[in-house]
């Protein structure tokens, strides 16, 4: 009877461990996808920064070109204003996302059920 209770406890412990591992696995998957979107946002942010500086360069070049070649035109032409600065977020690169853990052992629940059937005979 003592062995039976021991195996019963072991069976439920294994079952809880199995579900805990499943929860841990999905949590890590969510964490992994969150980091993937974080990286996507960062790439978009750097792309926006590059576009912003390119636009700035183009704006100043155009301004310089207008002031040096059209001096006889002294009418106040409305020149384009530079675009608003990009969002001030940290320029630090985000840490790499952790690799997703291996899938939970599916054999854990099946192997323990066989131990239950063998212990019920005692």
From TrEMBL:
Residues 71-122 are annotated as: Disordered. The keyword Transmembrane applies. Keywords: Membrane, Transmembrane, Transmembrane helix. Residues 71-82 have a biased composition (Basic residues). Residues 107-122 have a biased composition (Low complexity). The chain crosses the membrane at residues 44-62. Residues 83-106 have a biased composition (Pro residues). It comes from the Eukaryota. This is Uncharacterized protein. It comes from Dreissena polymorpha (Zebra mussel). The lineage of its organism: Eukaryota, Metazoa, Spiralia, Lophotrochozoa, Mollusca.
